Amino acid sequence: MKQYRAYCFDLDGTIYKGTEVIEAAAQTIYELQKRGIEPYYITNNASVNREDVENKLAKMGIVAKRERIYTTAVASALYCAEYHASSHIYLYGEEGLRKAFAEQNLRVVGPEEADVAVVGINRESTYESLSEVMNVIRNGATFIATNSDKIIPTATGFGVGNGSFIRLLAHATGIEPLYIGKPESTMLELVRESGGYAKDEMVMIGDNYDTDILCGIQYEIDTIHVAGGVHTQAQIQQREKQPTYFVENLTELL
């Protein structure tokens, strides 16, 4: 297998499942670090920020550099800091999203003042709260979605992903959002810019074809699908575009 300078790992389903680390992933990251290669961590989870991910990985025995962690909360805040710096932003999500926007000193407001609505996973969603964000969008706010994941891995199987809530809101409003997370390339572009990499020096690694693998394919970098997550190798082999590599566990990268 080709060696790379920038190994971009998905988190949920690739490095851990829920609160349980995948031992092959931890071993692989440790070996890469011994070789002087510090990985990147690319997650569609908008409920967490860099500090949250750093702390979670540390509890699993993985030492991650904070500046190499990209969540969709962080990426959405960086996007809005560049393109909506003077906007009034309504956030629908969890604490990680709010922290990321606070770190960028963006103007976060209530539903009546908003001209931008950023929607991330909210596991306390209710009929009333979804109706509120729907009306913010219907009233003209720019609709931004942190990611389009239909489902997300959990320790016991899968949970409803942010993308499923987004489809509900898009159907109710008739408005399609701008997506930030995988398979869009925003986070990979942030990685490339941060390290000055060429695309042939980067690889995207994950278990989900529709997010991780398509993200790498569309960004025109190599991809590695790891078994045991959202999609099986047999399912992916039915797709038109294939990953660069399939592995049963991440130690095969070594």
From TrEMBL:
Coiled-coil spans in chain: none
Write down the InterPro entries for this protein, in alphabetical order: HAD-like_sf (IPR036412), HAD-SF_hydro_IIA (IPR006357), HAD_sf (IPR023214)
Which Pfam families does the record match to this protein? Hydrolase_6, Hydrolase_like
A molecular function (GO) held by this record is: phosphatase activity
GO cellular component terms given for this protein: cytoplasm
UniProt keyword annotations, A-Z = Hydrolase
PANTHER family named among the record's database cross-references? 4-NITROPHENYLPHOSPHATASE-RELATED, HALOACID DEHALOGENASE-LIKE HYDROLASE DOMAIN-CONTAINING PROTEIN 2
NCBIfam families in the record: HAD-SF-IIA
Q: What is the name of the protein in this document?
A: HAD-IIA family hydrolase
